[in-house]
């Protein structure tokens, strides 16, 4: 089983929160909310995706992690085109 494309962004956020914001109420729930958002949100090919600190507008935290979405289409032996 492969991990979803957004997994490195989620892990970056988890580490940032564990290192800097564990005193915040529901801190790790923010990781789950972000993962759910990235899972269900529609992104276009070539789009940049940025995850910022959930508390950036309450403190001076400027942490962010960025990713880039690139679709790769593959044609299988049975002639059906899928994406990876």
Task: Give a description of the structure.
- This protein has 2 helices and 4 strands, in the order H-H-E-E-E-E.
- It is α+β, with helices and mostly antiparallel strands.
- Strands 1-2 form a two-stranded antiparallel sheet. It has a two-stranded antiparallel ribbon with strand order 3-4.
- Helix 1 (7-20) runs antiparallel to helix 2.
Q: Topology of this structure?
A:
Layout: H1 7-20, H2 29-40, E1 48-52, E2 64-68, E3 73-75, E4 81-83
Antiparallel strand pairs: 1-2, 3-4
Helix pairs in contact: 1-2
Number of helices: 2
In terms of per-residue confidence, which ranges show pLDDT below 50 for 5 or more consecutive residues? Answer: none
Strand order of the largest sheet: 1-2
Indicate the multimeric state. single chain
**Could you report the average pLDDT, rounded to the nearest whole number?**
88
What does the overall shape look like? elongated
Give the percentage of residues in beta strands: 15-25%
Q: Tell me the total number of β-strands.
A: 4
Helix content: 25-40%
Largest pleated sheet: 2 strands, antiparallel
Task: Give Rg in angstroms.
Answer: 16 Å
Alpha carbon gap, first and last residue = 13 Å
Order of helices and strands: HHEEEE
State the main characteristics.
2 helices; two-stranded antiparallel sheet; alpha+beta; single chain; 19% strand; 84 residues
Please provide a brief summary of the model:
This protein has helices at residues 7-20, 29-40; strands at 48-52, 64-68, 73-75, 81-83. With 84 residues, it is of the alpha+beta class. The strands form 2 sheets. A two-stranded antiparallel sheet has the order 1-2. A two-stranded antiparallel sheet has the order 3-4.
